[in-house]
């Protein structure tokens, strides 16, 4: 009823265009201390967001706000007036909105109680020891119903699951004890992946207590075998993003090499509509564009751009969309091949970032394994740095892949010539 009244008021107010997003969420939440249930609750929420557009002097401005539950007709009228005024402050070059589509999900989704149960069963079946165990964890399992309506005639409804698991792990040795925090996001529960990741965290806690200082290595090959690698892959995805192209951050054209003169593996990247257990499986994006499978980078060359309607229009690319899921492939190596010779495998960063502007990367090492060719040292401290744009010329990846929620990527990545700053003993 509120949506119909809101649409009526928008028409009466003479707005140039508008979008309404109505998101309803039903969630189960569980809070465990050790493996004892401390509390649980059911949460039902609804968020209605209104975005109003104004066209003036060759510009298209917009402003958005949440419509509060129980808003009166007078409250909504005032909100629309305020948004119309605020939209005039935004001077974006004019562009067109996505054309009309209608759709309603009819997919059968697992019940949120089943999703929560799957997470609980994984947590109760972990290889804990007397020195490495679970301190606490929280589970959030959600069923989301999202309706998106626009003045252009779009009216789509999507139903999808999402889940979060937050875990605190303890590791101790003699009088020393540390805590490690992890958060996992997904749609449904990938039991095997989750058990592997938390088991690895238990090992990380144990090894962190045994770590010495990272030696001064000058430059060294660095192995990425955790989700830190996603920062590197995001850099390549940003290279074929319409906003980055429009703003001059990416200089790529269709057919260009993403990494000129690459001597290593050639990256391929795709947008995909569906990945098992992903929290981002949608039929339509946040702007009402159809989500589909699309090759973005093929064998190291730019093939298509992705991104928002606004920047696509500026570039004359009207048929883009904002993907929920991505896949990265192109690796030709086995994991055993990448684990040969001298390298540093960093499994825990205090922070790791790759600049979307120039590809510069940097990260502080919390835990790593230094392989000198004969022996393995557990180390901590120091940092890695370099330019992904330059180092990617000698990038190698496994053909085998691993999934981190909405990203399916090579299980292991190796970069040659990374600068490694250690800690003097």
**What can be said about the biggest beta sheet?**
7 strands, mixed
Work out the oligomeric state of the chains in this entry: single chain
Tell me, what's the shape?
Answer: globular
Class by alpha and beta content: alpha+beta
Number of helices: 9
Description of the molecule:
With 425 residues, the chain is an alpha+beta fold. The protein has two domains: 2-207, 2-Layer Sandwich (PmbA/TldD fold); 211-425, no CATH class. The chain is 20% helix and 42% strand. The chain has helices at residues 2-13, 73-87, 112-123, 191-208, 229-239, 242-246, 309-314, 335-338, 388-391, and strands at 17-33, 36-56, 59-67, 102-104, 132-150, 155-173, 176-186, 212-213, 218-224, 268-272, 294-298, 301-302, 325-329, 343-354, 360-371, 376-380, 383-387, 395-397, 401-404, 407-410, 413-421. Strands 1, 2, 3, 4, 5, 6 and 7 form a seven-stranded mixed sheet that branches. A six-stranded mixed sheet has the order 12-11-10-13-20-19, covered by helices on one side. Helix 1 (2-13) crosses helix 2 (73-87).
Which SSEs are present, and which pair or pack?
Layout: H1 2-13, E1 17-33, E2 36-56, E3 59-67, H2 73-87, E4 102-104, H3 112-123, E5 132-150, E6 155-173, E7 176-186, H4 191-208, E8 212-213, E9 218-224, H5 229-239, H6 242-246, E10 268-272, E11 294-298, E12 301-302, H7 309-314, E13 325-329, H8 335-338, E14 343-354, E15 360-371, E16 376-380, E17 383-387, H9 388-391, E18 395-397, E19 401-404, E20 407-410, E21 413-421
Parallel strand pairs: 4-6, 8-16, 9-14, 13-20
Antiparallel strand pairs: 1-2, 1-5, 2-3, 5-6, 6-7, 9-21, 10-11, 10-13, 11-12, 14-15, 15-16, 15-17, 17-21, 18-21, 19-20
Helix pairs in contact: 1-2
């Amino acid at each position: 009823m509120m949506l119909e009244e809101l649409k009526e008021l928008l028409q009466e107010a003479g707005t140039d265009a508008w979008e309404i997003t109505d998101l309803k969420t039903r969630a189960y939440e569980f809070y465990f201390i050790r493996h004892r249930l401390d509390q649980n609750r059911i949460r039902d929420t609804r968020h209605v967001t209104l975005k109003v557009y104004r066209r003036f002097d060759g510009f298209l401005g917009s402003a958005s706000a949440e419509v509060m539950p129980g808003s009166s007709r007078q409250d909504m009228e005032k909100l629309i007036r305020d948004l119309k005024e605020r939209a005039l402050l935004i001077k974006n070059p004019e562009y067109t909105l996505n054309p009309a589509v209608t759709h309603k999900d009819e997919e059968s989704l697992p019940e949120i109680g089943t999703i929560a149960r799957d997470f609980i069963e994984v947590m109760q079946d972990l290889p804990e020891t007397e020195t490495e165990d679970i301190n606490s964890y929280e589970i959030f399992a959600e069923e989301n119903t999202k309706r998106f309506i626009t003045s252009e005639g779009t009216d789509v409804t999507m139903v999808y699951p999402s889940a979060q698991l937050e875990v605190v792990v303890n590791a101790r040795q003699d009088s020393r004890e540390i805590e490690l925090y992890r958060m996992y996001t997904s749609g449904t529960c990938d039991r095997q992946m989750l058990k592997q990741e938390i088991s690895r965290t238990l090992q990380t806690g144990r090894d962190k207590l045994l770590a010495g200082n990272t030696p001064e290595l000058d430059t060294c090959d660095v192995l990425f075998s955790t989700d830190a690698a996603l920062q590197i892959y995001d850099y390549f995805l940003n290279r074929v993003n319409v906003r980055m192209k429009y703003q001059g951050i990416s200089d790529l054209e269709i057919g260009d090499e993403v990494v000129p003169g690459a001597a290593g593996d050639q990256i391929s990247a795709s947008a995909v509509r569906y990945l098992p257990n992903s929290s981002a499986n949608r039929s339509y994006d946040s702007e009402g564009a159809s989500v589909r499978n699309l090759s973005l980078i093929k064998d190291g060359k730019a093939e298509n751009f992705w991104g928002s309607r606004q920047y696509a229009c500026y570039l004359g690319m009207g048929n883009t969309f904002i993907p929920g899921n991505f896949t990265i492939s192109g690796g030709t190596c086995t994991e055993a091949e990448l684990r040969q010779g001298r390298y540093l495998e960093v499994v825990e960063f205090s922070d790791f970032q790759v600049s979307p502007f120039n590809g510069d990367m940097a990260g502080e090492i919390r835990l790593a394994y230094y392989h000198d060719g004969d022996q393995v040292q557990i180390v901590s401290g120091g940092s890695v740095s370099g330019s992904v744009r330059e180092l990617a010329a000698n990038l190698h990846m496994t053909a085998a892949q691993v999934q981190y929620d909405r990203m399916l990527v090579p299980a292991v990545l190796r970069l040659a010539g990374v600068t490694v700053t250690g800690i003097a003993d």
